[in-house]
From TrEMBL:
It comes from Paraglaciecola arctica BSs20135. It comes from the Bacteria. Keywords: Membrane, Transferase, Transmembrane, Transmembrane helix. Belongs to the bacterial sugar transferase family. This is Bacterial sugar transferase domain protein. One of its GO terms (cellular component) is membrane. Coiled coil: none annotated.
Length: 470
């Protein structure tokens, strides 16, 4: 994937540089506009340069954190606008804080930051609109073909039907080969009836192919290894279907995994000693910061739940439930109670969308994830992290381990309050939903890093602010 990744990095770097120029220029113009409309003298050079540089740097950092420079960002234009708004709003807050505390002698005009922030949001939205519609800056996708048109190749057709799923590549078509299960294979995609022989090199060159994805059902005796080797030597990327899906969708296709892929693939390495050493410190600090801002809401939530039905039934406002944690160790998770006291009188049940057991207050606190706030105590205890796969109940885990391959591997990391699966998969509760969520959980286990944690954390804030998710 080196050639493809290099192209993606170059395109992302160009995007960062162009947007840095736009942000800096707009921030400068905002100063000129504020000075001319208010009749006040323009800020001195040092103040202006400091404000512009700090604002530009912060907007770029927060834009990076919310995924605006991801080469494979899968988002509607409305979602991109939300991310731009969140990144500029966070930058505005931090600049106000820095200026009021550390740069009191170089305060800009009170109207400067609001005008600059609004103009930056407008400019970036317009810019993103044009580059997405017109394909400016050479940000077009990689030209890709797929060898195979059977059951394995059909996973691309099923999982990546929308245009937004294929923003990072241009799929020219699928090449059927002997051994493919055509009955369960490609149905609606373009088929390329090309012989994979000596002339295949000419086909690759004539069509300017950047990447060949291997997705055939039977490899033994069907793959032209020498020809693919020659393509690789010539700089054409040759990618396994599992790697392609992992890169493009942010998930690992569990039902297509095979042992040798796991053995030879990068990742699944937990020997990050610095990360492990700082894990509790980082999570403890984050829990303290969140608690500092949310304790009034927690007290109000507890009071409302008590007045709603806790006073009549004598049931606690908190709900304690056994869950499976790191390495299969059991612990009790804490939540604000969002269901009726008799919700599980008949035994453990999957929670469902529009669950009739959920109270009126429960529907609201679930939508905005307020019910999860008591889990800060689980973080302090070291039982959970801020980021990680959501912990499941032991009754369900036993069944899921039997029904879903590799399910137990999600317990190789601490469970979290927020997770990659929660951001990428709609709410659901069944064996089938657990299989889909596992694909994202294993992607997190494989790629866990501080930057991925920060991305998940910031995008989770977006979910809470806009009430997305459940």
């Amino acid at each position: 994937m080196a050639l493809t990744n290099n192209k993606q990095r170059k395109r992302s770097n160009v995007l960062v540089l162009v947007e840095a120029f736009i942000i800096g220029y707009v921030a400068y113009i905002a100063n000129v506009v504020v000075a001319s409309t208010t009749g006040t003298p323009q800020s001195n050079s040092l103040t202006l340069i400091s404000s512009v540089c700090i604002l530009t740097f912060l907007v770029l950092i927060f834009s990076l954190s919310v995924g605006l420079y991801e080469a494979k960002l899968r988002e509607t234009f409305r979602g991109i606008i939300r991310r731009i708004f969140v990144s500029v709003a966070l930058s505005y807050f931090v600049v106000e804080l820095l200026v009021s505390i550390f740069l009191t002698e170089a305060l800009p005009h009170p109207y400067y930051l609001p005008v600059a922030a609004g103009a930056i949001i407008l400019s970036l939205v317009i810019f993103r609109y044009f580059i997405s519609k017109l394909g400016l800056l050479g940000l077009g996708g990689t030209r890709t073909i797929v060898i195979g048109a059977g059951e394995r190749a059909a996973i691309i057709e099923k999982r990546m039907r929308r245009d937004v799923d294929r923003l990072g590549f241009e799929l020219l078509g699928f090449i059927p080969i002997p051994g493919d299960n055509r009955e369960e294979g490609i149905q609606n995609e373009k088929l390329l009836h090309v012989k994979i022989d000596e002339n295949f090199r000419n086909f690759i060159t004539d069509n300017d192919i950047d990447e060949v994805v291997i997705a055939c059902d039977q490899r033994r005796g069907t793959l032209p290894v020498e020809i693919l080797f020659d393509c690789r030597i010539r700089g054409v990327e040759v990618t396994d279907l599992l790697d392609f899906m992992e890169r493009e969708t942010g998930q690992i296709v569990v039902n297509l995994m095979y042992p040798s892929w796991v053995i030879y693939s990068n990742g699944f390495n937990s020997q990050n000693y610095l990360r492990e050493a700082l894990d509790y410190v980082f999570n403890g600090l984050m829990a303290s910061m969140v608690l500092l801002f949310t304790w009034p809401f927690m007290l109000l939530t507890a009071l409302v739940i008590y007045l709603d039905d806790g006073m009549k039934t004598g049931t606690s406002v908190l709900y304690k439930q056994e869950r499976v944690g790191l390495n299969g160790k059991l612990f009790n998770i804490l939540k604000f109670r969002s269901m009726r006291p008799d919700a599980e009188s008949d035994g453990a049940k999957w929670a469902t969308k529009n669950d009739t057991r959920v109270t009126r207050i429960g529907q609201f606190i679930r939508k905005y994830r307020i019910d999860e706030l008591p889990q800060l105590l689980n973080v302090y205890r070291g039982e959970m992290s801020f980021i990680g796969p959501r912990p499941e109940r032991p009754q369900f885990v036993e069944q899921l381990i039997r029904d879903i391959p590799y399910y137990n591997q999600r317990h190789n990391v601490k469970p979290g309050i927020a997770g990659w699966a929660q951001l990428n998969y709609p709410y659901g509760a069944s064996v089938e939903d657990s299989m889909e969520k596992l694909k994202f959980d294993l992607y997190y286990v494989k790629h866990q890093s501080f930057m991925l944690d920060m991305l998940i954390l910031i995008r989770t804030v977006e979910v809470v602010l806009f009430g997305k998710g459940r």
